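Notes continue from the previous slide.

Worked example: a multi-chain complex. Inputs as given:
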Amino acid sequence: MSRRVFIRVLLGSAASAVLVLAAGGSSLAQSDGVEGALNGSSQVSTSPDADADVSNSPEVLEASQTPAARAIEEAISSGIAVEQVSDVARVTTKLADGTLEGRYDGFPIAELQDMTSVARSGKKSAGQVVAKARVDKEFMPIYRKAAKLDGFAGGAIRGTMAESWIGFKGSVPEEIATTARAAGITVRPGRGWSLQEMQDYSSKVHDAARRVTPGAVTTFVDEEAMAIDIAVPEDSRTAAERAVAETVGYGLAASSEGPRVTWNAVPERQARPQDSAARGGGHLNACTVGFVLAAQTSGAKRLGTAGHCTVSRNSDTYRNHPVDGGSTAVNQMWSHQGSYGDIGYTSHGAFNGIATFYAAKDVKRSIRWVADEVADMPVGKTLCVYGRTSGSLPLHPVCTEVRARRADVDGMGEMVVMTEAITEQGDSGGPWYWSESAYGIHYGVDVRNGDAVSAFTPVMNYSQFGFRVLTR
Amino acid sequence: MSRRVAGVAACLTVVAALAGACSSESQAEVRALTVPKAGSWVDMASDVRLSRDAGTGCIVDQLGRTVVFDEGTTVTGGVDDWVITLPDGTQFRDGERYTERGLQVSDLKDLNRTIAPETALEKLPEGCGPMPWFRVYAPDWPTR
């Protein structure tokens, strides 16, 4: 592993955008322009895990008493699936295709399964998970609306409404201010820069750094800190610093390196030939299928996966999970590794592609909605992933939170990076999802600031190439 | 019996080392082609069975593709009892399977995607047969 330095460029005011700080655990070293950049944003927190300790908030305490939280706790303590908890089982219907239908305590069964996965990891209590799911339902419509307005300067969804926030470059439009405050969401006016302006600067920084370090540069906007984070090879730091300074007038500094570990492979179980439907989350020889795609014009179906999984144009084998069984030969048809991330697709062979996916081993879900804009994935949003290897590991974490969107990872753009790495070899191409919604195609692991983080390509990027995720 | 590892810090060194060693001597050698490590990894699984190519002496997979390892990989033993030791200490012998991260690379651009850019190769190493090759990673960074 080469060393990479992790650098944070804080945005000052538009007129004096010069600030250098060292990441890797050091405190922020601010210079002129910082107060201007953060003017009016006194509630700024630089912690991406701001909801890490909200266990005693009123929302969480109340949520922990709900039927949903109690069902999740019972599932975890009994070591069973949440849909097997008696009260949940009573309202759950298994359809002919094996997917589950029903709602419990206001949540679809699929979302209840995801919340249980998050709580089972031990990082959040059932009450915290339910509280955040409630926040999600109120926060997202307001956030999406805000993201379409001029001057939108980012935001994040956290464990409570008060910790969740939406920012604007200047004043907050009245329509947002009213609804956000009514919902208890924190608004941050006077951020100094719009998200679009930050993205534009990030792109300039990325392009400048890549001129001297082609390939392995990762950049993204840290919306919380109003900063551009960039990871470059350590040996290229000086050259990158100079190139960025010449281009956008910034200097850079920082350094860190992480520890090391070894991974073990987990053999895949053989499927029994039974079924002739292809689904997202099915297995390929070395990768995982993300979602079934349909051409926007002809409706032709494809199996979406990572671009690096289809770049060799070899034949491949699609396999269902054991609950369905069956396999079919498919062809690696197309791949893209570049401006729109790392996506590809295969043919569907002799199988018929359907609008369902495996959210876990042998657990099928319908796809009813697709994240089709960046605003659907705010910082802090909880998402889960299925991969053929990590999905076979007992008690392996499958859910984590969005760290940044529109990240450039080693020359691949428009990626989403998460707050931790929860994926393994063989997971490439697998589906990132929440409940019955499709979000992304798994890429791999990027190393940032001594940490490793999972990264994916948003499924909406397929639209650049005439395809969309097939939905019910 | 010679034992060789083509560990490299720069492309030209690799090429020179391999090209110079890939003559008649290779019949008695066991060689592992190595390149500098990567900055990010794809989560693609491998399933390659390692063996020695009698012609070049290089480690290949069941499809005859040269297997490319991270630098720091070493080879010990002889043509009949060789042992590949990856940087993380994992060892492989003749006929054993490697099933961790890896992917096929078909040209220099593909290969350089798997290498940290400051050590990216300007020219393909020679002496271990033509592409496609199979690049394996030996992740030695925590992912959790």
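Summary box: Chain B has two helices and 13 strands. The longest strand of chain B covers residues 31-35.
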